[in-house]
Structures are given as structure tokens and as C-alpha cells.
Design a protein that fits this description.
Elements lengths: L14 E5 L4 H13 L6 E7 L4 E6 L2 E6 L9 E6 L2 H21 L6 H9 L8 H12 L8 H15 L4 H4 L9 H9 L4 E7 L5
Antiparallel strand pairs: 1-2, 1-5, 2-3, 3-4, 5-6
């Protein structure tokens, strides 16, 4: 399936890549990514679907859940689907868990410095299972941790991959904090474990 999609075509675990919506912030992100040489600089945000209508995303107030038919109706997205159903389902559950944690304690804020740093830092290697477990332990015990959008997506999928017996580096072979949205778009477009299934047009759900 490719072409224009509606919410009925989406699935839990899908990765949505938002296209520049004309806002000042989106323009600044696109400009920064273009300076970095990103081929997909117009992709300015990313999130993971919990179900066909709700996207879990790291943004201004931290990990949020937004309805594609309401709060995010006017945004356009490229949609990528994980080809491993168990991993996709796990990513949706993990993302929702992080949202629930943030709702209860407001501990998973947004990292604007991390987003900026990802544009100019070195890629680094994927976190080890121990490092990811340690981060989750801190989150579960109420410690503060900040994510930016594409970092959150990468962390969720790397963590769930390890839980499914797949090394994190086989899903995204890069440190999560070094993945701006444009780089995530490039990785997904050439990834054997993901397929682009289509796009959501602004206002069309």
C-alpha cells in the first residue's frame, strides 16, 4: 500500500514523520537540518502511533498523546511501518507507557538543547542493553529525563528490539541522541525492517 492514507489505514507502531507545516519552529528546524546537509530537511518532527488515531510524541510539554483527527489534523506526515509485527506492537506499548509515566509525574520533558545538539554532534553508536535498561529504571523510579522527537522514536524502537532478541544497532545503528528527524527519515527510507506505506495529507484523515 502506497499513496494517500487515512487513519483507517494506520497501525499501532507506525512511525510518522511530519513535514514542515510553515510554522516558525518548523522553519528553523528545516534550516538547521539543511545546514547540516540533510537530504530530508523538510521532515521536522517524528512520533510513534499508539493506535490508528493517537500519536505519541516528544514535544514542547514533554511526551504527549495527540489525536491525528483533532490536535494534529492540519499536519502532513510520511508513514513508515515496521515489518516485524511483534516489534511494532511493542513500540506502541512502550511509547504509551512513557506517555503514562509523564502524565503521572511530568518527568519526561522536551529537550530543545538535545534537538539542536543532534544537528551538529557526532553520530555515536547505539546504546547497549544495559544502558537502555538503566535509563528505563531511572524513568520508572521518577527520575527526570528529556527527549526530543526523533530521539524518542529511536529509543523506543531500539529498546523494544532488544526485548525481542534483536540488537538495537540492527534497528538503528546510531546513538538515539544523535538522530534529528531528517536523519531518521533517511534511515527509514533505506531500512530492511521498515516500509513506507504512504502519506497523510494535511486536513485529510
Amino acid at each position: 500500500m502506497t499513496g494517500q492514507l487515512g487513519c483507517r489505514d494506520l497501525a499501532a507502531g507506525d512511525i510518522l514523520l511530519k513535514v514542515n507545516d510553515g510554522s516558525v519552529l518548523a522553519g528553523a528546524i528545516q534550516f538547521g537540518q539543511a545546514l547540516r546537509g540533510g537530504a530530508n530537511s523538510a521532515v521536522v518532527h517524528a512520533g510513534v502511533l499508539f493506535d490508528p488515531t493517537f500519536i505519541i510524541e516528544a514535544q514542547g510539554h514533554g511526551i504527549s498523546a495527540n489525536d491525528l483527527r483533532v490536535q494534529n489534523k492540519e499536519y502532513g506526515y510520511y508513514v513508515f511501518r515496521c515489518l516485524h509485527p511483534n516489534m511494532a506492537a511493542g513500540a506502541a506499548t512502550c511509547a504509551r507507557m512513557m506517555f503514562d509515566i509523564h502524565q503521572s509525574g511530568k518527568t519526561l520533558g522536551y529537550s530543545i538543547t538535545g534537538a539542536i545538539g543532534s544537528l551538529f554532534g557526532r553520530r555515536g553508536s547505539a546504546a547497549t542493553p544495559t544502558q537502555m535498561d538503566q535509563l528505563l529504571d531511572r524513568v520508572l523510579t521518577g527520575k527526570q529525563h528529556r527527549f526530543f522527537c526523533s530521539q524518542f522514536v529511536v529509543y523506543v524502537y531500539q529498546f523494544v528490539a532488544e526485548q525481542n532478541g534483536v540488537p538495537a544497532g540492527r534497528i538503528f545503528n546510531v546513538a538515539d541522541a544523535m538522530v534529528p528527524p531528517s536523519l531518521l527519515a533517511a534511515d527509514l527510507a533505506n531500512h530492511s525492517s521498515f516500509a513506507e506505506v504512504g502519506y497523510l495529507m494535511p486536513g485529510a484523515r
